[in-house]
Amino acid sequence: MIVSPSFLAANFGHVAREIEMINESEADWLHLDIMDGVFVPNISFGFPVLEAIAKRTQKPLDVHLMTVNPEKYISRLAKLEVAIANVHYEACPHLNRVISEIHESGMNAAVTLNPSTPVCMLEDVIQDLDMVLLMTVNPGFGGQKFIEHSIDKVKALKELINRTGSKALIQVDGGVNAETAPRLAEAGVDVLVAGSFIFDNRYPKARIRDLKAL
């Protein structure tokens, strides 16, 4: 299992310490949520913080743009050598163009679906994607309860990927814990994003190791 800890759940009073923990851990990527307070009802952090994290982390950056007009930020992400640029289906009326811009900038392209958006909406772009992120809670806040229908949604996405021959990975974010993670893995998930489950524990590196073992 690929594990991408969600830095939004980190202790921002000790950012350097939290980044060092991730660097020393078995985490594969570092997941960063950029929220604008418009597309989602919250604000997280912007490019000054993202730039500081990029300088310190040794893990590939997995950036999730929860913003309107995410295409405005593609070139800035590329300059930071971000590995994965992730945009919301719901925020991109010209999704093909945005996916192409991400690839042309040298990054892997991912698209996120909100809980109420069916996977069939990706039918025409799934073969162009490197990853699909299914939100298993409503985006904008951490610590929410896992939406049970998400298990069936993962299976539906897996069927779409297999049917079309897409190479896209399946990522999930929201409510990932000791109870939901094994079920998601069994349903076909490739990448787990976990926030409070990792950062709120006394032994976060052990939590990461447990998720990777799934």
What report would you give on this structure?
- The chain has 214 residues and is α/β, with parallel strands linked by helices.
- It has eight helices and eight strands, in the order βαβαβαβαββαβαβαα.
- An eight-stranded parallel β-sheet has the order 1-8-7-6-5-4-3-2.
- Helix 2 links the parallel strand 2 (30-35) and strand 3.
- It is globular and about 45 Å long.
Task: Tell me the layout of helices and strands.
Layout lengths: L1 E4 L9 H10 L5 E6 L11 H10 L4 E6 L7 H6 L4 E5 L6 H10 L3 E6 L17 E5 L14 H15 L4 E5 L6 H8 L3 E4 L1 H4 L4 H9 L2
Parallel strand pairs: 1-8, 2-3, 3-4, 4-5, 5-6, 6-7, 7-8
Please state the CA-atom Rg, rounded to the nearest Å. 16 Å
Find the structural class using helix and strand composition.
alpha/beta
What's the main sheet like? 8 strands, parallel
Which regions contain 5 or more consecutive residues with pLDDT less than 50?
A: none
Estimate the helix proportion, in percent: 25-40%
H/E element order? EHEHEHEHEEHEHEHH
Strand coverage percent: 15-25%
Would you summarize the structure shown here?
The chain has helices at residues 15-24, 47-56, 74-79, 95-104, 150-164, 180-187, 196-199, 204-212; strands spanning 2-5, 30-35, 61-66, 84-88, 108-113, 131-135, 169-173, 191-194.
List keywords for this structure.
34% helix, alpha/beta, eight-stranded parallel beta sheet, 214 residues, 19% strand
